[in-house]
Amino acid sequence: MGFLDTLLGRTKPVQPNLDALFSLPTASVTLQASMGFVPTGTGSVCFRATEGRAFHDIEADVRELLSMGADAAQVEVTNDSYGFTWLVCRHSSDDMGALVTDLHAVNTSLAGGGFGPQLLCTLVGFTDPRGRKLGIVYLYKRGTFYPFAPTAAERRDNALELEARGNIGSDLPIEADLSRWFPVWGAPGL
Amino acid sequence: MVRTRYAPDRGLQARMGLTMFLLGLVFVAFVVALVFILAAFKVGAGAIIFFAVLLGGGLTFGSLFWSDKIALRASGAQEVTPEEAPKLHGIVDRLCALADMPKPRVAIAQADMPNAFATGRNSNNAVLCVTTGLMRRLDDKELEGVLAHEMSHVAHKDVVVMTIASFLGIVAGLLVRFAFYGELFGGGGGRGNNNNNNGGALPILLIVMLVSVVVYAISFLLIRLLSRYRELAADRAGALLTGQPSALASALTKVSGAMSAIPTKDLREAQALNAFYFAPAFKANTTTLSSVFSTHPSLERRLQQLSEISEQLGR
Q1: Which chain A residues have a beta carbon less than 8 Å from that of B102?
Q2: How much is the pTM?
Q3: Contact A94/A110 with Cβ under 8 angstroms?
Q4: Which CATH superfamily is domain A20-180 in?
Q5: pLDDT digits over B269-314, tens only?
Q6: B185: exposed, middle or buried (C-beta count within 10 Å: 0-12, 13-18, 19+)?
Q7: What is the spatial distance between Cα B133 and Cα B247, in angstroms, rounded to a whole number?
Q8: Residues A68, A69, A75: CA angle, nearest 5 degrees
Q9: How far apart are CA B133 and CA B287, in angstroms?
Q10: Which of B77, B119, B288, B297 has the largest count of CB atoms under 10 Å?
Q11: A49 to chain B: nearest residue by CA?
């Protein structure tokens, strides 16, 4: 924020950075090779729905768009307890490319409709043979990723998260500020 | 159409800019008047003015630098960890990620008065505080609206702006006080030693006092006006951040209704913190005179702006 913004008490809505998502398939390969984590095939986009008709129209369009086509994803919409909406896409676990394309379609539809500032994050789920869960979260406003590994009872496996950061650090821009690795408890698709 | 959805309110910004310009103008006029008075009498009330500026500057700097600690101490609020208040932290986390802001510290005050404030000299030292009364009365959506409003105060650096703006009022107030005590006690020991100086000292102090009173009054009104504009700006930014202006409007009506039902005895201690609060803690009065002195815009004005934003978002 500039000096004039402070003086006049204004904030410009932050626009999302959409393109960084396409580096996810590479990171997915790295995770599988170095840590044994495979994609669950589930990914989700989280956004804050605004009130009014305009947003609902766009949301309906997005759902329709995703449920069309030959390799149609299973789309599911859930609302979390914070009032945020999660659009969950399910693909087969080996088709990371298609999943990312779908997620990107959701973002671009929302951003194209003028609701870019409402995008919060995207989450792609991974799991390993021992049943541990790992989510890679993408922060739209920062354009960075961070790992999120929930265990039972609202605790997170920080060791696993830091290990993942070391492994995918060269594939993805990782959020440097650890205080911004906020937990998404109960996120659908994890 | 899409472009105007998050359009800034140029009228509000222009009014805010004009108010700050007028404050600056009063400041310059004040300095010029003091210099003129001193030059005209060729004698020193200089020490008094110097001390007033020094003390005023010190007070301003101190209240700015320690604003987070002062406000937390005054409200008796305790900082809470994510484990102690998971819901509150969750809401703040999400708002920070939406707005791309560093996360402020979060505190809870044990008070039944429903209110919230944000303080701290910059966004890295910011503290968000809500009262238990607020959390009890509002649902999650409304609480989120209030927190978004407070975080907009942090983003707009309102604590810094308002503290610097009130510097002038503080100095003028101190000068009045110093000059007044100077009148009362100045006639004592010094008079015999320095006769020719004292001939001028009395009217000088009187004139300085008069000028200060006028400056204090004008700057007081301008600061209150500025405060009301900053509140409207924070309402606006908060509503656009969550995309739910109606939730904030509903929180405002709930809080304002509960406010006036509370006996004044509890509120007396809260008045010092009033400028940072989400809604003023004393009873709203509908006469025009009190609306000029008020730190917050009237409920009607705030609700009207929020419904305009709601309409804007639905386009």
Answers
A1: 177, 179-180
A2: 0.85
A3: no
A4: Ribosomal protein S10 (3.30.70.600)
A5: 555 455 556 666 554 444 456 677 788 888 889 999 999 999 888 8
A6: exposed
A7: 18
A8: 45
A9: 28
A10: B119
A11: B243
